[in-house]
Amino acid sequence: MLKLLSGRGYSSIKYTSVKSLPAELHIDAPDKFRAFYRVMQRYAARLIFHDLSLHPEGAELSQLLHYASQSSTSEILETFENLGLVQQNENRFRFRFPTNLRIGDFLEWLVATVLQREFSVPVITNVSLQGSKTGGDYDVLGNWLGKLLLVEVKSAPPKGIHNPEIATFLDRLRDVLPDIAVFLVDTHLRVRDKIVLMFEEELIKANGIGSLKEMPINKIKGQVFELNHFIYIMNSKRDLKSNFRIVFRDYIRYNSPVKLFI
């Protein structure tokens, strides 16, 4: 993994191991880890997790019923409580994890863990590259089949994402030069209506309107899109594993000598 970055001229690399978050939360024992990984793959659980973060004083069960039935929400909260992540006081639920952790840290961990466990991709998260022109941290970097994979992870819904974030993502691609890049929005809403349109706007700004005729953004399946079979835009519906599989199969199909025969 680090060789792919050092080969691009980055000698000073700071990052977080994918093992760090479970260790910090004291859920790195195999049974607790499996329970946490399993529940965090549920979209409703991630939304409940997010809503709890908005109520540091605690939230009532009725405030957390926007995304699942009462029985499913209670089941999710019970799992969080058994893992020591949530504490129930009377009728209110509140987080118990360290204040230095952000909701984005959990999503980056989940994406990295899906890549590592389901696709055997060595990964690092929260990566800082000295000498990077764009600054900031890279959410998830991985070594997929010997290729540098970059994943930008957005926990905000499409309405909370704006053009400057797309422009920064594209600048980072020009800077770190990954082999394959994914812009992931953790939502079950459509990304075609806003996210893809913003990509088109930023590409026109950078390369002119003719660039979209030469390299249009195309739908692969569901809400997974590709640009030149190198940049991918996707949401998390049906699930992360399924959509990453669509991305990887598309990349291989169009960037492999086998494409000459299929």
Spans where pLDDT lies below 50 across 5 or more residues: none
Overall tally of structural domains: 2
Task: Determine and state the CATH class of the largest domain.
Answer: Alpha Beta
Class computed from helices, strands and strand pairing: alpha+beta
Rg (CA only): 19 Å
Helix content: 40-55%
- The name of the CATH architecture of the largest domain is 3-Layer(aba) Sandwich
Mean pLDDT: 91
SSE arrangement, N to C: HEHHHEHEEHEEEHEHHEEEH
How many β-strand runs?
11
Strand order of the largest sheet: 1-5-6-7-8-11-10-9
Number of helices: 10
Distance between the termini: 31 Å
Beta-sheet strand percentage?
A: 15-25%
Largest sheet: 8 strands, mixed
List keywords for this structure.
Trna Endonuclease, Chain: A, domain 1, 21% strand, Arc Repressor Mutant, subunit A, alpha+beta, 43% helix, 8-stranded mixed β-sheet, 262 residues, 3-stranded antiparallel β-sheet, globular, 11 strands, 2 domains
Question: What would your notes on this structure say?
Answer:
This protein has helices at 2-6, 20-24, 30-40, 43-53, 70-82, 103-119, 163-176, 192-207, 210-214, 240-254, and strands at 13-16, 59-60, 86-89, 92-95, 123-129, 138-144, 147-154, 180-185, 217-221, 224-227, 231-234. Strand 9 (217-221) and strand 10 (224-227) form a beta hairpin. Helix 7 (163-176) crosses helix 8 (192-207). 34% of the residues are buried. It has two domains: 26-95, Arc Repressor Mutant, subunit A (Orthogonal Bundle), CATH 1.10.10; 103-261, Trna Endonuclease, Chain: A, domain 1, CATH 3.40.1350. The longest helix is centred in the middle third of the chain and has 17 residues, at 103-119. The protein has ten helices and eleven strands. By secondary structure, the chain is an alpha+beta fold.
